[in-house]
Amino acid sequence: MSTTADRATAPASSRTYPAYSRPWVLRTLLTREFAVIALLVLVYVYSSVNIAYFDSSLTIYNLLRDNAPILMMALPMTLIIITGEIDLSVSSTLAVSAATAGVLVKEHSVPIGLAVVIALLLGCVLGALNGFLVAYVGLPSLAVTIGTLALYRGLTEGLIQTNRIAQFPPSWQDLASKHLGGVTSPWPLVLVPMVVLTIVFGLLLHFTTFGRGVYEIGNSSEAAHFSGVEVARTKFLLFVLSGLVASFAGIYVMLRADSVATDTGTGTELKVIASVLLGGVSIFGGRGAMHGVIAGVLLIAVLNSALLLDNQGSEIIQIIIGLLLVVSVISSSLLQRIRSLVPRRVPAIRPTNAPTAGDESRKVAP
Amino acid sequence: MSTTTLVAPSAQPRVTRIVTAITRSRELAIALVLVVILLAATTKRHTFLFSHDGWRDTLLSPSILLVLAIGEMVVIVTRNVDLSVGSTLGISAYVTGKIFIAHPGIPLIAVFVAGLLVGAVLGAINGLLVTIFKVPALVITLGTLYIYRGFLTHELGSGRINADDFPANFQKLGTQQILTIPVLTLIGLFALVLVGYYLQTARGGRELYAVGSDPDAAVLYGLPTGRRVFGAFVLCGSLAGLAGVFSVARYATAFSGTGLNLELQAVAAVVIGGVAIFGGSGTVWGAAIGAFLLITIDRALPILGISDFWQGAVVGALILGSICLDRLLSMRRTHRLIEARDDA
After folding, report:
1. Do A62 and A123 meet the contact criterion of CB atoms below 8 Å apart?
2. What separation in angstroms does the CA of B316 have from each of A14, B88, B313?
3. Alpha carbon distance B19, B41 (integer Å)
């Protein structure tokens, strides 16, 4: 292992092998993420051409408005799954936050602004409970969040009981349905928090030390610990963020539907996870990227609205989501196997300056 | 005290061994919780247990979840998970209905076999995908959850198969009792004993545990891991199929929402029963008691004066409590082993 020392002392220019085996264009294009993006573009173009009304601004408006909660919850979920954990409780956190805000406003006549703040804080607390049990107690997140899925949903049922929580102040309802610009514009107001959150989480994952830590934990949480990543704190924070975003989504859902029921958001957790996995994030952690996840969410959304406009039943979209999930994991495993069958091509080394002593030792090393 | 852990179990007399195994077992703890809840509810209202209907419901209501939990446990013990059981149950219920509409006079046993077969085929699809492509079961079965459910909705639409489509003798089966024990529960318990005996004594059963506690080691040891995991999925699927027949017998209906969201309940029952979610430990007896506990709590809470709106919260707290307890116990065990090693 003297090679490392040699390499460190050798000047950087003396390296005779390329830094990457493929040029950057191929590296960008031949990825899972790009495959999903390409599929998204394909479906979008096909639907715009072949399906009536698909390219109308109302379709885009509805598509964004209806899928905003899923996209927002998919952002922290991406980071959580990259660390190798999972959060099944998001839909219940969504519901209990919405129920809390709703009950506070309708039954205790709390001003709605305060109620929203309380609900967001509650989301943080619920996320923190998940995070504490997973990160500091060390319990498996799959089991913990199945438990809190039931617990938070139960709290929602207890809070709402048989009451009808509806009819919020119209000025707040408008927030959830407003268009950016004129009424004819295809962009709902919720696009603003959506884009802001996407940028924040994208930067957090790809351009900060925190984000690098997230990947390292996913690859090997022990190695991450030894290289100075605060494993427990990172996981804890991610679950808190997940709770916060889920409760924000809950308030949005409440205002958009102008009601909260005991079954608000049931089953959303599986949709969120399906979108994230479709976007190329590995369930074992350690790999995945934000642009892939966004494409994954939008792909399901576009397929859904295209099929609905084409008068297909909602079950077709279920089958397609399922098939996409299965095919996407199988294809990456198949590709890997094919690649391992084909002997690896050694990149042709162009004749360069005479190899230095450091490179000689590299040839001897196994 | 600390050294006893290092004594080979077989050096102790058989009776001591069995007694310590039972008193230390995780299953006993949750069985006690179940008994306490039953007692509390019964003292509050005698008919909860001591009436014809009360006794029957106590045993009958958990039968569907019981069968699902047995199958789910076998999959979880191999460090996999099957999220598609709810959808499998739905499809099997639908097929059961179809069979009765096509052949009203068909013997009941054939319907049960058909349910098992339908489930086995769906489970085999899961198993093949997971073992051939070596991909995570969570993703595959999440996918098949949607595919199977979508297929069911596609076939049934908003329609439903109603009570009058089923022959009277099949509907009676839903509530029929032998020696006061409901037939469905008897079948469920029979499956429990079979699977439990297999897991505890048969070579294949022990190998399932080996695969779950360390898949790589199992491969190196020469165990047929792929075949074992495949078998576990087929078994889980067939039991979900059986649960589908149960569901039709019990509720006399099948529609596109039959068995919706049952998958997480099945996993919850298994986890409450002390089966580690990452495989390799736990017993099917525990999972079965977990299923009984989940359902009994649902029925007992209103009697105990807790509004049934809070049932979900109690169930959630129970799941969290039981995994925390597992963690605590395993930490204590590790500590004791370390102490014993240091003393030796």
Report:
1. no
2. 61, 25, 5
3. 29
The residue of chain B nearest to residue A337, with distances taken between CA atoms, is B133
Tokens, residue A11: 């000047």
With an 8 Å Cβ cutoff, are A150 and B129 in contact?
no
pLDDT over 70 percentage in chain B? 96
Q: Which residues of A74-105 are buried (b: 16+ CB within 10 A; e: fewer)?
A: bbbbbbbbbbbbbbbbbbbbbbbbbbbbbbbb
Q: Which residue has the tokens 């031949």?
A: A30
pLDDT tier, A360 (very low <50, low <70, confident <90, very high otherwise):
very low
The amino acid present at A75, given as its one-letter code, is: L
Q: How far is A24 from chain B (nearest CA, A)?
A: 29
Dihedral of the CA atoms B149, B153, B155, B161 (nearest 10)? 110
- Listing DSSP states for A255-299 in one string gives HHHTEE-TTTTTTHHHHHHHHHHHTT--TTSS---HHHHHHHHHH
Specify the pTM. Answer: 0.82
Mean pLDDT of chain B: 85
Interface contact flag, B153 A150, Cβ < 8 Å: no
pLDDT in tens, A215-257: 999 999 899 999 999 999 999 999 999 999 999 999 999 988 8
Residue of B nearest to A320 (CA): B147
Tokens at B174, concatenated = 């839903």
Share of chain A above pLDDT 70, in %: 89
Please list every residue in chain A whose beta carbon sits closer than 8 Å to the beta carbon of residue B261.
266-267
Own/partner pairs, B45-53, CB within 8 angstroms, 24+ separation: B45/B303, B48/B299, B48/B300, B48/B303
Task: Provide, as residue numbers in chain A, all residues whose Cβ is less than 8 Å from the Cβ of B327.
Answer: 137-139
Q: Looking at per-residue confidence, does B171 or A248 come out higher?
A: A248
* Location of structure tokens 């409450």: B272
CA distance A207 to A202: 8
What is the distance between the alpha carbons of residues A235 and B238, in angstroms, rounded to a whole number? Answer: 38
Q: Which residues of A touch B144 (CB under 8 A)?
A: 322, 326
Test B154 with A319 for CB contact under 8 angstroms: yes
Between strands A259-260 and B177-178, the pairing is: unpaired
As a whole number of angstroms, the distance between CA A144 and CA A125 comes to 15
Among A163, A312, A325, A336, the strongest candidate for a mutation testing the B interface, having the largest count of B CBs within 10 A, is: A325
> Pick the residue with more confidence: A57 or B67?
B67
**Which chain B residue shows the shortest CA-CA distance from A267?**
B261
ipTM value, please give it. 0.78
Tell which residue, A17, A21, A22, A20, has the closest CA to residue A3. Answer: A17
Residue A76: name the closest of A275, A251, A304, A332 by CA: A275
Q: In angstroms, rounded to a whole number, what is the distance separating the alpha carbons of residues A148 and A155? A: 10
Q: pLDDT tens digits, residue range B147-157?
A: 998 888 888 87
Question: Average pLDDT in the A14-42 region?
Answer: 80
- The better pLDDT of the pair A3, B298 is held by B298
Per CB-CB distance under 8 Å, the chain B contacts of A99 are: none
Query: Where is pLDDT greater, at A6 or A69?
Result: A69
Angstrom distance (rounded) from CA B195 to CA B189: 10
Tens digit of each residue's pLDDT (9 = 90 or more) over A129-163: 999 999 998 888 888 888 898 899 889 988 888 77
Query: Could you give the CA distance from residue A268 to residue A92 in angstroms, rounded to a whole number?
Result: 9
